[in-house]
């Protein structure tokens, strides 16, 4: 038994180049006018006002009389993996860092005064009053020599 799958496009915006919604149906004819509790005009696509208990709603734009389907119950089914968890995505896209990447020290191309290693690691701290410069703490990654300067 083969079915012909038809695709119907319902444009939900005033500008037809934005926000198209495709509706798939195996029926030969379908006239879609509701999505959830929102009801749209079958002729012009305008969002219709809420019903006041009548079976028909008149479109304020084109005057078309539309069937009120807002009282319909819509039941949907989805799989747990249909909506990916943002937390799982963050967890799965995490990076593995080596311990030397976590030390929080920046590097500067200044030779060590003790062993002449070409690179020093450094951190800064504001130890004096706010109107004075920060203190820079240097450490040689080769020999461990430490010193500081007041900027």
TrEMBL record:
Q: Which domain of life is it from?
A: Eukaryota
* Cellular component terms (Gene Ontology): RNA polymerase I complex
- This one is known as DNA-directed RNA polymerase I subunit RPA12
Can you cite a GO biological process for this protein?
termination of RNA polymerase I transcription
Pfam families this protein is in?
Zn_ribbon_TFIIS
Q: Where in the cell is it found?
A: Nucleus, Nucleolus
Entry-linked InterPro entries: Rpa12/Rpb9/Rpc10/TFS, Zn_ribbon_RPA12_C, Znf_TFIIS
Show the GO MF annotations.
DNA-directed RNA polymerase activity; nucleic acid binding; zinc ion binding
The alphabetical list of record keywords is: DNA-directed RNA polymerase, Metal-binding, Nucleus, Transcription, Zinc, Zinc-finger
Q: Where is the TFIIS-type domain?
A: 108-148
Phylogenetic classification of the source organism: Eukaryota, Fungi, Dikarya, Ascomycota, Pezizomycotina
